[in-house]
Every structure is written in C-alpha cells, then in structure tokens.
Amino acid sequence: MGLQRNVIFTEQNQLTLLNSGGEFFPALISAIDSAQVEIYLETYLFSEDITGKLVHDALCRAAQRHVSVYVIVDWLGTGNTRSAELGRSFTACGVQFRRFNPWFRRGFARTHRKLFVADQRLAIIGGININHDLFAEGEHKRTLPFPRWDFATSVSGPLVAEIHQLMSDQWKKVGKLDWLKRLELLTAKKAATAQPRAPIVAGLAPRDNFLYRRTIQKAYLYALGNARHQAIIATPYFAPGRKFRNALISAARRGVQVTLLIGCGDFRLQDAVAHSYYPKLLKHGVQIVEYRKSQLHAKVAVVDNEWATIGSCNCDGLSLFINQEANILIKDHEFSSQLSAAILQGVADGVKINLADYENISWQRKFWYGCSFFIYSSIIRLIAVEDFM
After folding, report:
1. Do 122 and 245 reside in the same domain of the chain?
2. Which of 14, 95, 158, 252 has its CA 20 to 30 A from that of 103?
3. 304 given a catalytic annotation
C-alpha cells in the first residue's frame, strides 16, 4: 500500500464546461494571449498540425512580450522527433521547454495530464491534447467523420492555486534535481484549509506513483458506492481493475442505473480486453454503449447529477495504476447536470450493446478476449505491482 492523500475541496470556484476542441482551443488561446506574468502548460501530445501551430505561436507571442512560459510534453506521447523540434522552436522564441521521462529513464510512467494555468488566476483541466480534433489519435492516423469528442473545464477561484502548485512542482521534478530536493517536493504537505461554510464545489485529484497512487480510483469507488439513482461514465478505454468493476456491479445491483459509454476502434487489444468484461457487467444490469460516431476521448463521469469528474484519467490500468494523471472532482448540481446532458447526448449517438450479442459468440472470439485480458492484466501487474484481476 502506498501513501495516500485526500482531496481537498474548496468552494467559490467558477467552472465553465468546454466541449471538445471547438470550445477548448479558443478558450486556451485567449487565456494565453491575455496572460501577463506566467504560463504553465502540460500535455501528453503536442501535434504538428494547424491546431498545434496555433497554440505554439500563441505561446511564443506570450514569451516575446516577456511572459514566463513553461511547457512540458510527454516524450512518448509527443514523440522523440516532434518533441525535439518543439524544444528547438520554443527555445528560439523564449519559451522554456522540458520533455517528460525521455527514453524511460525514470521508469514506465508517462505524464498523461492536460493542464494549463495562466497568472495563477485561470486554469484549464481536462482530457484534450494539443492536436486537431478532426485527425485521429492512436495507432492509425486517419481523418475523423466528426470532431473528436472530449471535454475540459476552465477554472477560476481557490482551486487554481492548487493546480498551479502541482504544475510548478512538476516543472522542477522534470528538471535536474538532486535526490534530497526531489524527495522534499514529493513529500511536501498541502496547506490545511478551513472547512467551507457553503456547499463544497471542487477539488483536484492527481495521480502519481508515490503519494497519490489511488486518489482517482478511490474517488470513483466512493462516488459509485454512494450512488443512489444514476451513474454515467464515458471513457475511451475500459480496462479497470477488479475493485472498479465490482463497484459498477454493486451499484447496478442496488438499482442504480449504471451506464458505460466506451470508445472503440483505436487499439484491438484494448477493445478485446473491454469485450472480455461485457458479459458479466451486462448480466448484472450495467448498460454498455459503444461510441462509434467518431473518436471518443472524453474521461468524464457524473453520479446522481451531484458529483462529477473531468480530467485525463481513462478507466484502464495505464491511467489508474501507472501514468501521471489529473482530474477535477466537482460537487455541484448545476455543473453536474450540464455535463450529464452532454454525456447522454453521446449515449444517444452510440450503439447499445446487448447481452445476447455475447451469449453465442464463437470460441475463437472468446479465446481472443481471454488472451487479451491475460496479456494486458499481466503487463499491468508486472509494471504497477497491483492486484488487477
């Protein structure tokens, strides 16, 4: 068992839901252009396309007007060649740039987070990478029939300070630090906050492999364990561990309407692992819908229109047990209802999976699903040392 920290919730935060790239990128570029002192940006993927160029140029403009700009990209997600090119172009225009964990020098973990803070006043957190939303992510590059479906939220208020601290600490850790300073950053305590006098609004839930190993999963388990009426989860990849799957089944058994909206078509192995779970989940009343209209990249959930989460964490082993992630947890009826309506539109656009579809499948498909689960779970257990089964 690793050390665990609780999420600190604060009130008086203002949140604006950003639906896919059409809303996210104008908000991001506007925030970059309005920054006066400091910008932090962290992303898994920073593509070489028209959208990537727009964000790149906005960051360079900010640096040229003497804003301190700090950019971190994941070395694997962005790619060695592309991240090296970004390093040269950003350095030339005055942007400070670092790559996360090149050549796996610090283990297997990747930074899968999508975070932005400007002037310690405005933050944006979600699941959207810096790439054009009509070009598919993943193994096979292709043009999408509709824009990639994803979410983020802009944040102002007390929570911004916590997101800024997370990002500034990350900047230091990605740089060159001796082991003592690195340990100090890893063990630094959060400042205590007074109990709110009004309903709780939001909290930051990061995930790493030291102090925040299970923060996001525990948030999901707590929300599902307390669900009374409805739980809706959208995720591109569905391959969680046993505790997560059991929490879904337990909620459905209690009469909660549990709906999983799952992406498909990006990775055959990942799809097969998800399919291996379908029969048991369906038998216990979990509704499963596959989103085939375009590429689903959203990592969002709503429970009872009172609790919601948006962030970078997929419901799979890589996100829940290995990678660095960041989600925002929201306890607000109005925002949760807005997000719920958006997810339900995705459900309406999806294809419902029926138990009958999996009752008479061929032995070859059963064998493929079983082998895929065994391979995937063995890799996760080996790398993360987690009870995945």
Report:
1. no
2. 95
3. yes
- Which carries the bigger pLDDT value, residue 41 or residue 135? 41
Enclosing domain of residue 290:
202-384
For every residue of 220-287, DSSP letters joined together read HHHHHHT-SSEEEEEES-EE--HHHHHHHHHHHHTT-EEEEEEE-SS-HHHHHHHHHHHHHHHHTT-E
Do 162 and 206 reside in the same domain of the chain? no
Q: Which of 132, 164, 173, 299 is catalytic?
A: 299
Eight-state DSSP code of residue 3: -
* Whether 119 is catalytic: yes
The question of whether 366 is a catalytic residue gets the answer: no
Report how many domains make up the chain.
Answer: 2
Note if the pTM is more than 0.85.
Answer: yes
Average pLDDT (130-139) is 84
Place 360 in a pLDDT band, splitting at 50, 70 and 90: confident
Q: Is the pLDDT of residue 187 over 70?
A: no
Considering the domain architecture, whether residues 60 and 18 belong to the same structural domain is answered as yes
Of the residues 133, 208, 304, 332, which is catalytic? 304
Selecting among 114, 164, 173, 275, the annotated active-site residue is 114
Residues 123 and 67 in one domain: yes
